[in-house]
């Protein structure tokens, strides 16, 4: 049973290049289903088992998006088992995906971003320089937090050699796909200041080491959770409600502010690393301010 699950995860990793976090999410979701079944095998499962599980999830008051993700994991897994001839019928074939409404992303205002940057700038010591670098990087590029904390030093040094503003940087994102992002002048200044003290965070103490943001953790670099905690502390210092600030919300802010200041959706899609532009289109709700300015500035009767 678990051997089949392990093989499935290995195939996902090899063929689709999924991150460790995504693979762990698949594993958690599938093991949760197994716990519900109260058995030690994924075989002998019927559509009624799947429907009962979905009713169970609804009874736990889980969000529609979470339930859809759980069902998606099951559909991928049972399709794999069927293709491998481990089962004779796929029990998920006739199960419909729950309808998931698109929720609007939370977005910080430009003033709130400035307040966060000022709070980071006023944080003393090496920790302050690292935090400012992380924040400037995140807001300048809209990177996913996992992409940010795992940036390799070698890529940064190669980018710095170009001595160019904005500074182009190639990052490796979901599905092991590469894309180009651009670092603003403030982000490059923060990077150079942080590199002066980066060795204080590197336990290896051997040159620059592998990661831009090293730590003593298992992965060798700053964890997503720790960076999230640091942002909460920064939000407190900036006088911003803690629930309004997270790495992903700052990624949303980057996208929303770019659109509101004239960026087009196709360019934003490439910068964010979205495979489908429909994912990027969710940010168009923030364009109201831009449209209002356009109407006020250009409509012939706006001054009457």
Structure description:
The chain is mainly alpha-helical and about 300 residues long. It has two domains: about 80 residues, Tyrosine recombinase, N-terminal domain (DNA polymerase, domain 1); about 180 residues, Intergrase catalytic core (hpI Integrase, Chain A, Orthogonal Bundle). About 55% of the residues lie in helices and about 5% in strands. The chain is built from 14 helices and two strands. The chain has a two-stranded antiparallel ribbon. Strand 1 and strand 2 form a beta hairpin. Helix 1 packs antiparallel against helix 2 and helix 6 packs across helix 11. The longest helix is centred in the N-terminal third of the chain and has 20 residues. It is globular. The mean pLDDT is about 85.
Topology, pairings included?
Blueprint: H1 2-16, H2 20-37, H3 47-59, H4 64-83, H5 110-121, H6 125-141, H7 145-149, H8 153-161, E1 167-172, E2 178-183, H9 185-195, H10 224-238, H11 247-260, H12 265-272, H13 277-280, H14 288-298
Antiparallel strand pairs: 1-2
CA gyration radius, whole angstroms: 23 Å
Annotated CATH homologous superfamily of the largest domain: Intergrase catalytic core
Q: Write down the overall mean pLDDT.
A: 83
Number of helices: 14
SS class: mainly alpha
Question: Main sheet, how many strands, which sense, barrel?
Answer: 2 strands, antiparallel
CATH class of the largest domain: Mainly Alpha
- Looking at the overall shape, the CATH architecture of the largest domain is Orthogonal Bundle
> What percent strand?
under 5%
Note the gap between the termini: 74 Å
Relative helix content: 55-70%
């Amino acid at each position: 049973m678990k051997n089949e699950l392990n093989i499935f995860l290995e195939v996902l990793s090899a063929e689709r290049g999924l991150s460790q976090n995504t693979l762990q999410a698949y594993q958690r979701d599938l093991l949760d289903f197994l716990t519900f079944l109260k058995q030690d095998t994924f075989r002998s499962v019927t559509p009624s088992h799947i429907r009962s599980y979905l009713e169970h999830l609804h009874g736990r008051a889980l969000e529609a998006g979470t339930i859809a993700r759980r069902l998606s994991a099951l559909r991928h897994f049972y399709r794999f088992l069927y293709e491998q001839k481990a089962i004779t019928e796929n029990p998920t074939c006739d199960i419909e995906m729950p309808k998931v409404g698109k929720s609007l992303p939370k977005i910080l205002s430009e003033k709130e971003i400035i307040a966060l940057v000022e709070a980071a700038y006023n944080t003393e010591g090496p920790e302050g320089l690292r935090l400012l670098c992380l924040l400037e990087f995140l807001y300048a590029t809209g990177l996913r937090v996992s992409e940010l904390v795992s940036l390799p030093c070698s890529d940064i040094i190669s980018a710095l050699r170009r001595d160019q503003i904005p500074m182009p940087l190639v990052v490796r994102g979901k599905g092991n796909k590469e894309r180009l992002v651009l670092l603003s002048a403030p982000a490059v200044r923060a990077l150079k200041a942080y590199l002066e003290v980066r060795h204080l965070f590197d336990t290896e103490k051997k040159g620059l080491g592998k990661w831009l943001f090293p730590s003593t953790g298992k992965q060798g670099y700053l964890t997503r959770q720790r960076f999230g905690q640091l942002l909460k502390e920064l939000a407190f210092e900036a006088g911003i409600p803690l629930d309004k600030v997270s790495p992903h919300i700052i990624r949303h802010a980057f996208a929303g502010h770019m659109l509101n200041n004239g960026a087009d959706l196709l360019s934003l899609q490439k910068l964010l690393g979205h495979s489908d532009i429909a994912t990027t289109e969710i940010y168009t709700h923030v364009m109201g301010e831009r449209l209002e300015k356009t109407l006020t500035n250009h409509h012939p009767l706006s001054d009457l």
